[in-house]
Structure formats: C-alpha cells, structure tokens
Write a structure and sequence with these properties.
Layout: H1 5-24, H2 35-38, E1 42-49, E2 52-59, H3 66-79, E3 95-102, E4 106-107, E5 119-124, E6 127-131, H4 142-152, E7 166-170, E8 172-176
Antiparallel strand pairs: 1-2, 1-3, 3-8, 4-7, 5-6, 5-7
Helix pairs in contact: 1-3
C-alpha cells in the first residue's frame, strides 16, 4: 500500500524529531491514528551525512507498528549502529534521513532475484544478513552483490552457491528528506 506524500513527510518528521529529542534529552512520544502507521511492517531507517552512510538499522520482520518501528530504528541508526560513533548534536544539520518500508520477505530461487528491485535476505544456518534494494547500485553483478552479502553474514564469499543457503526477497517503498 503506497504512502501519500504527506504520510512520507510525517514519518520522516517522526524520525528526525525522535533523534532531536534524544540529543536534547527530552521525551518525545507522539501518537497517531493513521491506520497505515499502526500496521506492523518491516522498516529500515538510514542516515546519510554528506552523501555517505552514517547509520542504518531496521527490522526485516514486522514486529511492531510502522510508527513505533520508525521511531525505534531512527534512534538506533543514530546512536546504536556499531559501525559508527553515536550521532552528535553538531552533526544533525548535515544528516539526511531515508526510510524503507518493506514487504514481507518471500523465499526465492537465485534466478528469480530482480536486480535493482529486490532487497535480499541470505540465510545459512544461524547466520543471516540483508541488503536493501538501494544497495544494488554499489555492485556491478548479482554475484558481487551476493558475495558481499555472504561476507556481511560472516560466511565465505561463495556461500551463496551452497544449496543449503536460503534466499528471501522483498521490495521496499523508499523515501527521504
């Protein structure tokens, strides 16, 4: 179900105001009655600073309402992404927020992956990792994409060729400031 522009703006404002409140040490607990926002959805919040990744955290599974997931993942992307130091007050003006609302992942065969369209979850035993659809732009081939996803999951880069590997695809509605 696509979002209207005003809904995208509202979700982006929720993410930004959640981060601002944490930096200011104030409480921010807005409510919504928008039925789309109350649905449980998988969602990622990505922060960019000067066109570079500054944080990205999300849920593949729909474990809470979209409203709550945007708030939680905005805070996690800003302050808990282990690849980065916590966001500082003076950085916020340079941060651009992007939200990806996901469809439910479905198991697929390798030859059914849609390059540039599908987000991918790669799972092998207890190890798993995902790349959002927009990550395709960093790779020239499907093989490079999958090899790097294996490395992200802590697997050998050719693990995607193993018949025991499970591949799930999803799409996302992506919008940003």
């Amino acid at each position: 179900m696509p979002f209207f522009d005003y809904e995208k703006i509202e979700l982006l404002q929720l993410a930004r105001k959640s981060i601002e409140a944490k930096l200011e040490g104030t409480d921010f607990n807005p409510q919504t009655d928008n039925k789309k926002f109350l649905e449980h959805r998988g969602v990622f919040v990505t922060l960019h600073k000067n066109e570079e990744l500054r944080g990205c955290i999300g849920y593949i599974e729909a474990i809470t309402s979209l409203w709550e997931a945007v708030k939680q993942n905005a805070l996690a992307a800003a302050f808990d992404d282990p690849r980065f130091l916590p966001l500082q007050n003076d950085e916020l003006k340079d941060i651009k927020i992007e939200i990806s609302v996901l469809t439910v992942p479905e198991k697929v065969k390798l030859d059914h992956i849609k390059i540039g369209i599908d987000g991918i979850v790669l799972k092998y035993g207890a190890e798993k990792a995902t790349y959002l659809p927009q990550v395709w732009k960093h790779f020239k081939t499907k093989e490079d994409f999958l090899s790097n996803l294996c490395l992200k999951a802590g697997l050998p880069e050719d693990a995607w060729k193993d018949p025991k590997v499970e591949i799930y695809s999803y799409q996302s509605e992506i919008f940003s400031e």
